[in-house]
Amino acid sequence: MAQHDLTWEEIPSQWAEGAFVGNGQLGMMMYAKLDENRFNFHIGRQDVTDHRKAPNKKTSMGVDGTNLLDFSRLDIGKMVIRPEGKILNASLRQDLWNAEVRGTIYTDLGQIDFRAFTAYDDMLQIIELTSSEQKEGKECPINYEWLPGDPSCPRAHLMYERYKDDYLFNPHLPEQKVIDGVNVCVQKLEAGGDYATAWKAEKKGAKTTLYLTTANEVPASNVSEKVAVKEVQKGVELGVKKLEKATRKWWHSFYQKSFLSMPDNRMESFYWIQLYKLATCSRVDGPALDLNGVYFKNTSWPGLWWNLNVQLTYWPFNTSNHQDIAYNYIELIDEQFEWIMRNRTGKSLGDYGWALHNYWLYFDYQGDDEALYEKWLPKAKRIIKKYEDKLIQNDEGKYELTPMGSPEYKGFKSFQNTNYNLAVLRWLLNESIALSQHFNANTELITHWKGILNDLIDYPTDENGLMIGSDQPVDMSHRHYSHLLALYPLFQLDPDSEKDRDLVVKSVLHWHNIENGKALAGYSFTGASSLYSALGMGNEAEAIMQTFLDAEIGGAHFLPNTFYMEGSNPVIETPLSGASSIMEYSLQSWGGKVRIFPAIPEKWEEASFSKLLAQGGFEVSASLQEKEIKWVEVKSLAGKVCILKIPGWENAYQISKGKQFKIEKMKEGEFCISLQKGEKVTLGITSKIKPILKSIPHPEGKANYFGVKKHTKRKPLLEAPILEYKALK
């Protein structure tokens, strides 16, 4: 893992360049503000939001009549180090394996060394500081201060003229106090309740250790400070070594749940950094992941978006075998579904139908048909019924969709027969039929649903491929690939069909090239990579991902710390979706088949992966050597029949010992194996293969690509300023 650590040869001078740690609820972004000669540890906590329309709840998300201002993410603040000397530079290393950042801040009076991590089992952030600064022959003190963040919605600040008459700003009155020797800063909210940050410094010899936490007991008042103080006191009592040991144990186990290696070190580093980012921003007992994650920044988009963002955010949890920290998405849908049905079944219905696809994927990757039947199908039925209300029959007896949205095209206008909604509806119908048939249920509905499918209008197309809708061609550059969802991720168009392949290839090329792609954004490239991978076009998939990693993405910003911003707004889903795209070169599992190395670029002679998760509940491992798939291992988590698609194999030989399984060759490169729950089999291209898993070696000098390097062009300041309060020491 060390080869993938982010390293900084130059000081990160803004949020967009910072080093980062987190535990899925709390996090810190580390960067300097050189004009004030300070180094920031910018604190985030995901559930610190407003609750305007729900004063008796923690958040007003899902309350009728709310908008983003009512449940916006709020800034907590920064723990700031102010050296005595002038900051000259810094060097940092973000240690992925141990989930910590180590750094040295160089000043004209010496240096300050620090280490920072977020404890996983405890809601604590740790900053260790050691200074060698000297002035007039005397050691300089370590100066640290708390800068409270602005407690109001950043969108209201940044779009003040739009919201000044509608939004009541929270009071600018952070209250500082000391409780039982612990410093506390309490921020009260207009809607009631408060959040509190507490910290205590412990000095031993030359080292000062800051124990820091933020508690949020909204809607209760005067409780957060007590919780925060207790957490800090617990941390001091445990000590850094115990906190470190427990945190490292969790992270080491996390990384070993799956494995992926490839010849391209930059791409491999990017992949592992995104997995690290996943776990810093999501945990089983935390809230659903929004655009910021745990890394708050002043932004016009301080919340969760449904028309692409949340869907892409949660894709990589599945194949990477980290669903254990993604259940908060299932809870999000369960909690918000009734609000969706009351408030979001108009032209934006497709957004929530698509969100239901992520819900379906979660359980399908587990092979859990019972959960799909009990939890997903009732929701799918209700979304289908809302779609039926929007169907009209034309003169030919075909069902057409009344005007609906296709995300963001021409300012959220509505169009007839949008491909976006036709794809979502077809997917809902097909999966509802298949699941009902599996359980021998909903007989009358199956007949009804099949009738709709049979008479549903075809996807509107023109000479450039798939259209936005029957009354709207793709006639301008546009970042969203909503009109292409029928192929990916819904697979209602068949990549194995020559006709469908030709249609999608033509559509993708037109989408990316019209007006020279001037309106494309980062996810336009990760999305295109996934579309090409689904078609087995590995060269094209890899090439367009390289364009993204080169940051050649127009006005959007792919940043040196692998974060992504549009304007000054962070949007976490794009790099996370890139991790999914990269996994798809090695493993895909749509259409009831587990596909091994389906989209490897020709120049890759080697690749390997272990314990990646496939739909149907299969943990899969495989090795590609000298451009040949040598062996494949499959473990069944649910006891379903496994159909393996292995390019280049004429026969499959069981090379694992123990129980001998029947391997049925269905056709060239395609094999069927029946495994009971918990059973595992290893197959080889010959009977004499030894299944050895190894990481792919990389050329010298290619390690530690990400971070800020010397002599590289850096982005101008990507920050929208908001008031900072006077420091609290």
UniProtKB/TrEMBL annotation:
Residues 353-566 form the Glycosyl hydrolase family 95 catalytic domain. Pfam families: Glyco_hydro_95_C, Glyco_hydro_95_cat. One of its GO terms (biological process) is carbohydrate metabolic process. Residues 588-682 form the Alpha fucosidase A-like C-terminal domain. GO terms for molecular function: alpha-L-fucosidase activity. Coiled coil: none annotated. SUPFAM superfamilies: Six-hairpin glycosidases. It comes from the Bacteria. PANTHER family: ALPHA-L-FUCOSIDASE 2. This is Uncharacterized protein. It comes from Flammeovirga aprica JL-4.
